[in-house]
Amino acid sequence: MAIPHSAPGDLIDVRPFGASLGSTRTQALFKSEDLEVIRIVLAAGHELPAHAVPGDITLQCIEGSAEVSGGDGLRRLEAGHLIWLAGGELHGVRGVLDTSLLLTIALKKTAEAP
Q: pTM to 2 decimals?
């Protein structure tokens, strides 16, 4: 079953969840040929294990607090902070508090063989 995504021109609400944060789940917002955007929800103490993606990414903390591990060590994101990570960089994310993050992924296209 395909994950529903927003269509071009749709309004997407990315305001803080507030009191409903604890009962909200991660949701894919949209995916185009070049870009994917996901609203990640992490409970305090939960983590996304270390991984890498081919394209550059940004993580913007909308509410709560998270730690991002990567090549430069450990960085703490608070509400309003944004971090950019280069494609291929190994990284992990852990919720310090219940947290919502806006993840953008630049989708790398592989060169077609001649």
A: 0.89
